[in-house]
């Protein structure tokens, strides 16, 4: 038996065969795969999604400018990926558990992150801010792909508990090349773990276009491991919501893992340290501006008459409020005391670190009286 | 007290830990029907089922990475790495995740993972089956590292490791799997000496020999041989390599003034370097001679027919003891 | 776009959809995919393949018994996998470069290994025996899957040299779960490297049946990475030869990597240290005995009248000669001198190891006079 | 002589090496059009093409594993690991393959791979971007380990590393990338001091401070400050961490009798432990006081706002110097 190239072997960047329900012009189109997952969605709910995205975009703007002002060490913009993040995350239950990467500002917003949670880590005060168990969301992962295995293990635990939660992991097109991500699919498949893989293919891994990782759709890899997958327009919040409902339903009902590739675009730099002019054309960015995830919902909701002036004002006000609160949280964040550098290295007493802690305390004590 | 092999003691410890706490799950390659290539998990899948004794796909990063997720869900995974040389594909998950998650999350996420590693050489194995990677883990903050040397410690300390809320690298010397000893199966691990303490394996007054794992036996044999020649050696079994129990070592070195540290791992930046640097810091005024290292060479682990040239044996330890005593030894007249 | 489960999603152990040209009964059947690659094969050439397999089986028997007699530390039997190994390896040019695992006795035999090369490493005298550049075959790899990346890198070098060699890597069903093997496919695809992946799915990874790694055909994974693949009867030496001709032709002509899953069976234990009765039924082994890779060629050649009594006697004699030579090589292998333990740790002088070498020489010198 | 940053010197070294030998190829993430996140490969893809400056998929094991294959085919790959904390996925390929292949094959297969790692902290970076993994590599027989501290060494030693037939881990202190210095671009690397030698960065007579990488600057600053108080510090820049140039250290310690070893990496089983254990073995009779370690703590690398509590600064080094001098210091009266 010869296996030909993957039957849907369009280059990974091609936009054909990507499921959509809302066109860039804000027109709701029929989609046999997704429509059934959207039947119950009311215009007010779509408005709520739009509101989420607007707030997330505002947080992102705030984070960016805080970094530029020297208040944060770094910021990884989610600009352009609001639909992929909000749409998928809004399909989850509180009791599901999410394993995001560093770029998922929109996801942690939906999960219930507090103002300071968006900035504490980027400010360098802590390596994480929120309590993972409070919002059932792991610390944003920096090692590309490592979190996908954690999600699978967590999902194996869900199975062992006979629970019907799902675990969800977010990662990028670049991360899909990591051994860990592939092993995660293999483990998930073998153990029929209730886990959903969400790959945000934002076309770039820092300066590398997605074709360096794959000439073919990343979504096409999952089925080879026995995992059904869906490739959706990641700038279409309804498509993302629907796809995620499909995926979580699949996983929650004991059918094992599911995979979503959300085709989107990183409209900003990789991080505030990056200079995308060195590797990508303004024209490409422009073409994606035409597919902005907020614009199309705005048009759609205006046409429906749901995005009234009042609603718009309320959203703007709330976005501003959250933006200001995030800024305030950054600016008023207390500095941690020097000796806290030792805290939590171990959960139980470790004589080695304890001795170092004493020695360092003695060292610091010298300076109190101005000595040494 | 029951006489049993270290392998059996480990098996009993796993059984006990799984009985005591149903959050304990075992993961690894071939640990199910086969019972592991060393049979340490023998019969446990039959007893506890496939959900608690999990034969995994052949991918060590996958095993440790999924163990992290299970730990986050409240489980206490006990991972078996099939041989020491196969832990490296999991190194990233161990160093960046297992070791750091508690620190990263300000103590909110615990990582009670035990990573069992059949460890080190001397069994005539093929390449990659005789590695001594302990220094990597000792240097990794956030991990605890245990190396056992006898069935009783194996039984007690494996249970302690599993019960510990910190991640533990648990090193099991392969060449002692079949060595027998007395084990008190009834004693509870919480009543035993805590996991972080060293043990004076033999008292002596002239020279302190510090070691761990399978080298404890070699050191004890050396001590016996030395006593025939009137040299009294104190042997310290470290048991815990992170943290290291310096008070116990200090007491011995301050008594003898002379020390040899021996292990099978390579010398450069190995555990012996750590022990000697610390002893020198802590006991400088008590030292009569320079602390001596007797270790494996700084070479990749050799083919099995040459491994006896690599693993320090009784004679090499005694040569080191002679050096510590300022007696004639192989280095006499040789430039370092 | 929804990706369903892989279209040919039979469990990985199923024998349907496996390309065959010679049935277990020795009947040559038509195969549209493979026949074109076999047109030129003469009966004498098939006889030569049979001869190879018989000799390889004899070497394996010798290795096994040498281990049992304490002459080798370990042996990893290739029993049952002779067709997969000989068939694929015979499709190569000398200038191609092979990256095998520990089980490829048949492959290194075909590549030109000398008598002692089969046993030196298992005896523990050296970590490798043959010079990789003499037989263009890397040292048999023990770290599962690691060699697949080496093959891809080597193939990238072939491309850079504008040469038309191919690199080939052998690995098992178990190894296919390793991150490295997946990364190897990703790199191979991205760089269109002239590399052929040969996965010998022998149904077991030590005690784990292949379903622990995959419920679906391993060959189905490659196309997802953009690599065409073929699933062949690994006990059919002609099918293996043909598939490898297809794969090398593909790679050699600049089309990038190709993948072969040879479905076969490990008839012996994993190694001489293993006890398969703990995990598998005799009945399963029996069913595979019916599909023995040598038997079917024997029948086929007898029917053709090519395997004459004389030919049979010659093969038996040659197999015995090689077996005896391998035994002799093991028994007469010189012990390496103690100080050789330091040799080749570095290619250029390293003061640290050099000092150790001097110290150890001084240590050993004490014993020469019986001192110490 | 030209004044340039260390980053620029490294870029020039790569250009020179690629010009000298067309078997030299560069591999890594974002090293092409972007020129690497630190611009060390700036403009090289334009100059040498996509086949010699290769943007790879995002997988470190894949990068190092394919580099092994390229080396077997006769190439000299120079791998860039984007940040120190991302080397761990490649650890298996480095430890089991890169380090061991020459030994495994009885010298038949050479592994002339250089693995460049932007290294260590002090730049206010996020987690995993400030790691000091050097002890892992120093402990790994078969590897050479280089840590540079100035543009001239960066320029010369990177070329030496690439020309070396052994695999070299080449550590580039991130916080010195923008530090400037004089570089002789015309001198040939074969005329310079061999890669394995240390350098006396400042002569002194009272205390020897041994260090490497970015800490060399801190140590020199400390020496300057100490000289104001009449203490003469000799600073040794190790340059090579495997092998370590003990003759140079010995000469200094036998002169001063007092030694401080400082690095930013964690202390337990770190490079300082190795240096001190060896100094003690080699120079015991010359030591006036116990050798002192001034290192990072045994904690995961802290968040950036706390990193100044972790990286030893001038004051901590001087405190260590006081200890080596037997003067009042922070440990006076404190139990170890
Ligand atoms: C193991 C590892 N290697 C390298 C990096 C450096 N790095 C950070 S993000 C990134 C690109 C990731 O691209 P992608 O997965 O597509 O996610 P995106 O940034 O586009 O959201 C790289 C190379 C890392 N964080 N971890
Ligand atoms: C990285 C690594 N992990 C574990 C092992 C131990 N091990 C050796 S062979 C083997 C099974 C391999 O199965 P497969 O890939 O199917 O090859 P086969 O032995 O069947 O030829 C295992 C687990 C190893 N050699 N390397
Ligand atoms: Mg991306
Ligand atoms: Mg197999």
Q: Gist?
A:
Chains A, C: Its cofactor is thiamine diphosphate. Chain A has helices at 43-68, 82-89, 105-111, 120-123, 132-135, 146-160, 179-190, 210-213, 221-224, 237-252, 282-289, 293-304, 309-331, 351-368; strands at residues 2-3, 97-99, 167-172, 195-201, 204-205, 208-209, 229-233, 258-263. Chain A is an alpha/beta fold and 372 residues long.
Structure, described:
- Chains A, C: This is Pyruvate dehydrogenase (Acetyl-transferring) E1 component subunit alpha.
- Chains A, C: InterPro entries: Alpha-ketoacid_DH_E1_comp (IPR050771), DH_E1 (IPR001017), PdhA/BkdA (IPR017596), THDP-binding (IPR029061).
- Chains A, C: Keywords: Oxidoreductase, Pyruvate, Thiamine pyrophosphate.
- The complex is a heterotetramer, with 2 copies of chain A (372 residues) and 2 copies of chain B (336 residues).
- With 372 residues, chain A is an alpha/beta fold.
- Chain A has 2 domains: 2-336, Thiamin diphosphate (ThDP)-binding fold, Pyr/PP domains (Rossmann fold, 3-Layer(aba) Sandwich); 337-372, no CATH class.
- Chain A has helices at residues 43-68, 82-89, 105-111, 120-123, 132-135, 146-160, 179-190, 210-213, 221-224, 237-252, 282-289, 293-304, 309-331, 351-368, and strands spanning 2-3, 97-99, 167-172, 195-201, 204-205, 208-209, 229-233, 258-263.
- In chain A, strand 3, helix 7 (179-190) and strand 4 (195-201) form a beta-alpha-beta unit.
- In chain A, helix 1 runs parallel beside helix 13 and helix 6 runs parallel beside helix 7 (179-190).
- The longest helix of chain A is centred in the N-terminal third of the chain and has 26 residues, at 43-68.
- Chain A is globular and about 70 Å long.
- The model of chain A is unreliable at 5-10 (pLDDT under 50).
- Chain B is of the alpha/beta class and 336 residues long.
- Chain B folds into 2 domains: 2-191, Thiamin diphosphate (ThDP)-binding fold, Pyr/PP domains (Rossmann fold, 3-Layer(aba) Sandwich); 199-325, Rossmann fold (3-Layer(aba) Sandwich), CATH 3.40.50.
- Chain B is 33% helix and 20% strand.
- Chain B has helices spanning 6-20, 44-48, 60-72, 91-98, 101-104, 134-138, 151-163, 215-228, 246-256, 271-283, 314-324, and strands spanning 2-5, 24-28, 53-55, 76-80, 114-119, 144-147, 168-173, 180-183, 199-202, 207-211, 233-237, 240-242, 259-266, 292-296.
- Chains in contact: A-B, A-C, A-D, B-C, B-D, C-D.
- The complex binds thiamine diphosphate (2 copies) and magnesium ion (MG) (2 copies).
């Amino acid at each position: 038996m010869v296996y030909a190239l993957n039957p849907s072997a369009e280059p990974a960047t091609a936009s054909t065969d990507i499921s959509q329900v809302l066109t860039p012009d804000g027109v709701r189109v029929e989609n046999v795969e997704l429509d059934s997952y959207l039947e119950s969605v009311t215009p007010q709910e779509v408005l709520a999604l739009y509101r989420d995205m607007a707030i997330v975009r505002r947080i992102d703007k705030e984070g960016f400018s805080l970094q530029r002002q020297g208040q944060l060490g770094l910021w990884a913009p989610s600009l352009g990926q609001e639909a992929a993040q909000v749409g998928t995350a809004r399909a989850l239950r509180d009791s599901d558990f999410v394993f995001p990467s560093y770029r998922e500002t929109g996801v942690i917003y939906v999960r219930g992150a507090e103002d300071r949670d968006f900035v504490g880590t980027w400010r360098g005060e802590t390596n994480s801010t929120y309590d993972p168990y409070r919002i059932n969301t792991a610390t944003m992962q920096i090692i590309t792909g490592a979190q996908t295995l954690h999600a699978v293990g967590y999902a194996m635990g869900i199975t062992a508990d006979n629970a019907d939660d799902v675990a969800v992991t977010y990662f990028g097109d670049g991360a899909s090349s990591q051994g860990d991500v592939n092993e995660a699919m293999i483990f998930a498949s073998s153990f029929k773990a209730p886990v959903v893989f969400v790959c945000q293919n934002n076309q770039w891994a820092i300066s590398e276009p997605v074709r360096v990782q794959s000439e073919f759709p990343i979504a096409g890899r999952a089925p080879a491991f026995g995992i059904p997958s869906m490739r959706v327009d990641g700038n279409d919040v309804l498509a993302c919501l629907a796809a995620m409902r499909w995926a979580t339903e699949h996983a929650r009902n004991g059918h094992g893992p599911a995979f979503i590739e959300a085709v989107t675009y990183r409209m900003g730099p990789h991080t505030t340290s990056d200079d995308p002019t060195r590797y990508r054309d303004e024209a490409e960015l422009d073409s994606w501006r035409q597919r902005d995830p907020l614009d199309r919902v705005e048009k759609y909701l205006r046409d429906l008459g749901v995005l009234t002036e009042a609603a718009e004002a309320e959203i703007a006000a709330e976005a501003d409020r959250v933006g200001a609160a995030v800024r305030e949280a950054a600016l008023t964040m207390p500095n941690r005391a020097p000796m806290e550098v030792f805290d939590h290295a171990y959960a139980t007493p470790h004589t080695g670190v304890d001795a170092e802690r004493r020695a360092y305390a003695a060292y610091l004590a010298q300076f109190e009286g101005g000595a040494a | 007290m029951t006489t049993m092999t270290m392998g059996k003691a480990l098996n009993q410890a796993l059984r006990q830990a799984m009985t005591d706490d149903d959050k304990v799950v075992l993961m690894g390659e071939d640990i199910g029907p086969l019972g592991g290539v060393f049979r340490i998990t023998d019969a446990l899948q039959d007893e506890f089922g496939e959900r608690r004794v999990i034969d995994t796909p052949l991918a060590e990063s996958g095993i440790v990475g999924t163990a992290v997720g299970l730990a986050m869900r409240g489980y206490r995974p006990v991972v078996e790495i099939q041989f020491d040389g196969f832990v490296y594909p999991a190194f990233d998950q161990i160093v960046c995740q297992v070791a750091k998650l508690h620190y990263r999350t300000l103590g909110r996420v615990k990582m009670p993972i035990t990573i069992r590693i059949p460890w080190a050489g001397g069994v005539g194995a093929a390449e990659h089956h005789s590695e001594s990677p302990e220094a990597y883990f000792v240097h990794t903050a956030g991990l605890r590292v245990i190396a056992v040397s006898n069935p009783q410690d194996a039984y007690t300390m494996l249970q302690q490791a599993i019960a510990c809320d910190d991640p533990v690298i648990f090193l099991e010397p392969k060449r002692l799997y079949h060595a027998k000893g007395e084990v008190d199966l009834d004693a509870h691990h919480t009543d035993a000496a805590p996991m972080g303490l060293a043990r004076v394996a033999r008292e002596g007054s002239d020279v302190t020999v510090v070691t761990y794992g399978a080298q404890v036996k070699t050191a004890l044999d050396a001590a016996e041989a030395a006593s025939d020649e009137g040299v009294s050696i104190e042997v310290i079994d470290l048991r815990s390599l992170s943290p290291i129990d310096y008070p116990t070592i200090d007491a011995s070195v301050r008594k003898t003034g002379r020390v040899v540290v021996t292990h099978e791992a390579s010398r450069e930046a190995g555990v012996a370097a750590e022990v000697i640097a610390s002893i020198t810091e802590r006991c400088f005024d008590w030292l009569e001679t320079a602390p001596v290292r007797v270790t494996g060479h700084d070479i990749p682990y050799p083919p099995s027919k040459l491994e006896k040239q690599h693993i320090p044996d009784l004679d090499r330890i005694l040569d080191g003891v002679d050096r510590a005593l300022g007696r004639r030894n192989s280095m006499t007249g040789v430039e370092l």
